[in-house]
Queue: 3 jobs
Job 1
Amino acid sequence: MGDALATYFEAKACQDSNATSCAGGTITTAAITLAKACYDTLIEEGLKAKLAVENNAVTDAVEKIIEANTLLSGMGFESGGLAGAHAIHNGLTAIKECHHLYHGEKVAFGTLTQLVLENADEDLLDEVVGFCMDVGLPTTFADMGIEKVDKDALMEAATLAAAPTDTCGNEPVEITPQKVYDAMIAADAIGRYYKGL
């Protein structure tokens, strides 16, 4: 679900910046619609599906999340595009404490960071952070295994994420390594705030 969480926000960023889709064309209304349906399904069905799976049950919620994670997310990203969340994932791969994480776990934190970069409104942050906490996706550095932040390692990750060869350039805002670094710090602070830390 962490990977699928990024689908709508990255497609929207690509649409807003007029970036080329992963399929090589312009972003279509259908792509944005599928990406939004992916996000809406995660929010409506994600917690129910997680709880069912943890108890070895297959429910309608589980089936809907499977569709969102595969079909809606796949078509949404391919016809929509990638932006900050996946670039930040790529940067986080340089931090040894993150090596044990699944792709979607790093993308989920990347999504929070992307929303900070875009200065998303508080209601949206509340919904996304709440969803991540409900389904067990990381919202803080500590959740990812980073107990003590190494500023140099984090700046290396930010520099990789902001590289011209990665997808952070599809963001509709100016991207620099420092901005990505600051957004990761702020995303962690938001996560800690919501956890009461």
Note: The chain is about 65% helix and 0% strand.
Job 2
Amino acid sequence: MSAFDLPDLPYAYDALDPYMSAETLEYHHDKHHNAYVVKGNELIEGLPDMGSTLEEVVVNAYKQGKQGLFNNVGQHWNHKLFWNWMKPNGGGARPGNLDAAITDSFGSFDAFREKFIQGGVGQFGSGWVWLITDENNKLDVMATPNGENPLVHGKTAILGCDVWEHSYYIDYRNARPKYLEAFVDNLVNWEFVTELYEKGPVKIAA
């Protein structure tokens, strides 16, 4: 596939204040995400065809044990979605289809919120917490270490929160629970989450 590119943020650097600062976004997007793109492009150069889509490259790198490539392309995929999982004045009500699915799967939105936050808090060290769907479009929460993601486990991520320390330390210091609470309550772009939910499971070519 063609070289990976760093996407622009879908909002201004200061658009998520006070829940995520311009300083955090500048470091996280311009430095960390960009580094994954640059390194991913270096590592894939000269390799046999790894796939025609980013998703295929992520899964194939994981399956083939190309850990360095996977770390970088996995994080590129994770972050491309992460920026879109947030919006100014986020949080709030969920569109009907998604809200019904959350209630059906978790019992209530509050029960989902608690499980999601605890999943992120409980992820030791660096990693991510996800709202996923399985092949039957049933919702669940899972956490993964480092740059690992639901794609490589045959699941579809419809929401994810980065719990690497660089995601929140400038704004929250070591208070990861407060960051996760702010993410769910004030940052999530539920319309985008619903769009991914309604698309159904992601299919990756073998």
Note: The chain is about 50% helix and 10% strand.
Job 3
Amino acid sequence: MAKTWILLRGLIRESRHWEAFPALFSQQFAGDTVVTIDLLGNGEHYDDKSPRTIEKMVAGLRDELSRKGLRPPFHVAALSLGAMTAISWMNDYPGEVAVGVLMNTSVARYSPFWKRLRPQNYRRILFDGVLKGDALAKERMILQLTTNLISDAEREQTAQRWAGYAATQPVSKSNAWRQILAAACFRAPPEAPKGASILLLNGGGDRLVDPSCSAALARAWLVSLRVHPTAGHDLTMDAGTWVANEIKDWLA
């Protein structure tokens, strides 16, 4: 039976930041529908105000799916902040998500703040990310911090494309702060959400979020964790084929 996959990106990111991954994923899951959704304040919703809580992000997501005529149950593959949104969705609306694939995420209940966002990155994220006026310099910094396995040439080409995305659908500083606040305050449930099969995927070379955050969540919830030994935080940019293959193998 054909499934509907929902792809959710992370902090101050939008659907276009998936780059080639949705097409690659569709090839692996031929016959399924693959849908990318922008959270409020990002992408096509850049003019909207980002919620201050993950729970309200879920409300906006569910409203959009309803407007698009998409009905649960869904299969969800989500990265970072998107994965926090998926956790809240699975927990608060049992049965709407049949499968949740959570990539490079972290939650307050199981990991301290200094592992959820590594301290050596605080200054760069604040001054070269949130407060930086130069979109190209900001995207270069983000890619340097979140990718390990793409070439310098590809990183530069991607940064230029992403600066173009920021020019057409810019995330405001206030929305960036709201998303950071929502992520920082999000607390996962003490048990794995009922009614959903959950897989954790992690980049062992993540320099933004300590990989131990995924391991801690996997231990607490007794769910599967698969680790790419060298990929960074942007797991689908570094190892998109690996991600799709791991999901397919796990579901089989």
Note: The chain has one domain: 4-251.
